[in-house]
Design brief:
Helices cover about 70% and strands about 0% of the residues. The chain is mostly helical and about 325 residues long.
Length: about 325
């Protein structure tokens, strides 16, 4: 028995060292493959985070409007307006300590998305290990770590990847539906993660809405957890409205800013017929990869992914994987 305990302890120690080594390897790869800023939303978000670290963000002023920087999206606004980037408050918790340590530098620009990307890889690994197995978890995490689209967002000061990480954490926090001991705590965590996603991208929680609706209908024992999450999310939303009112910006200010940003973006967005909209991703891959054979293989891969996600939603045993699959189908 002592020998088996020693073997188990040694396995745990090696597993922990292996996990740390894997995280360091992913960090090294993503740091090596970091990309130049694209001089778009990334630099605007970087400027706002830098202002917040210097105490000049609208959050820290009695009247926020004089603290607002130039906003190309709102040059035609009568009140000067606030840009939608200035409302991406979910970046500030990790950004403020990093800016305090390294100042307004390239290191700060890259460290914030790098931390989110490492958390994302760890979340993917944990979800796969808990719901499928160790071998699959390592394979999925390795594939996730080197995906080109993932690498593009892991090296730039955007909110897309951090919002996706918050949604993954919300799925992970659901945990075991049958476990009643920590249901309230897990519900609070789900709500907090959804609030974090909302403060990064206002539409991010919508991506999980179909999955949570199915969970609510299929599993009555999950309803207390989901109600707790909803209460936490709504309480956070009400707190945000009180913040806007206290700043003199008015109730529902974020919704107005987002709507105005959409109005400004609308002329540049493509317009699809219903059939074109459903097949737009296949058309994109076919054209981007120049038809046969690479475009055909990419389209076949996308179709196989959609079919597998549909199978998981209909026949899967894991609620976490069903949530991931539903989110994939919804997007």
């Amino acid at each position: 028995r002592r020998l088996s305990d020693m073997t188990l302890d040694r396995t745990r120690i090696l597993g922990r060292f292996g996990g740390v080594a894997a995280i360091l390897a992913v960090a090294a790869v993503r740091w090596w493959l970091r990309l130049e800023p694209v001089n778009s939303d990334d630099l605007a978000l970087f400027e706002y985070a830098s202002d917040a670290a210097a105490g000049q963000h609208w959050l820290f002023t009695a009247d926020p409007r004089p603290a607002l920087g130039p906003d190309l999206l709102c040059l035609s606004c009568e009140d000067g307006g606030m840009s939608h980037q200035s409302l991406r408050l979910g970046l500030l918790p990790p950004a403020l300590p990093i800016f305090a340590l390294f100042g307004r530098s390239a290191l700060s620009y890259y460290l914030v998305p790098l931390l989110f990307s490492l958390l994302g890889v760890a979340s993917v690994w944990w979800l796969a290990r808990r719901n499928i197995g160790v071998g699959v978890a390592w394979a999925v995490a390795a594939l996730h770590a080197i995906m080109p689209y993932e690498l593009m967002h892991a090296g730039r000061f955007f909110v897309d990847l951090p919002a996706a990480v918050c949604l993954l954490l919300a799925i992970a926090a659901v945990g075991d539906i049958e476990d009643r001991s920590s249901r309230a705590l897990r519900g609070f965590a789900v709500g907090a993660c959804l609030r974090g996603a909302y403060l990064l991208r206002s539409n991010a929680p919508v991506l999980l809405a179909p999955g949570f609706a199915l969970l609510f209908l299929r599993k009555p024992q999950a309803r207390p957890l989901l109600w707790t999450a909803a209460v936490v999310f709504v309480a956070g939303w009400l707190g945000e409205q009180l913040l806007f009112v206290s700043k003199g910006l008015g109730f529902g200010y974020r919704a107005g800013i987002v709507a105005r940003a959409l109005d400004n973006y609308a002329p540049f967005l493509p317009v699809y017929e219903p059939a074109e909209f459903l097949g737009r991703e296949l058309v994109f891959f076919w054209k981007a990869l120049r038809g046969w054979p690479h475009g055909a293989l990419a389209c076949a891969f996308v179709c196989a992914g959609l079919l597998s996600q549909a199978w998981v939603v209909l026949r899967g045993r894991s609620e976490a994987l069903r949530l991931v699959a539903t989110m994939g189908l919804a997007t």
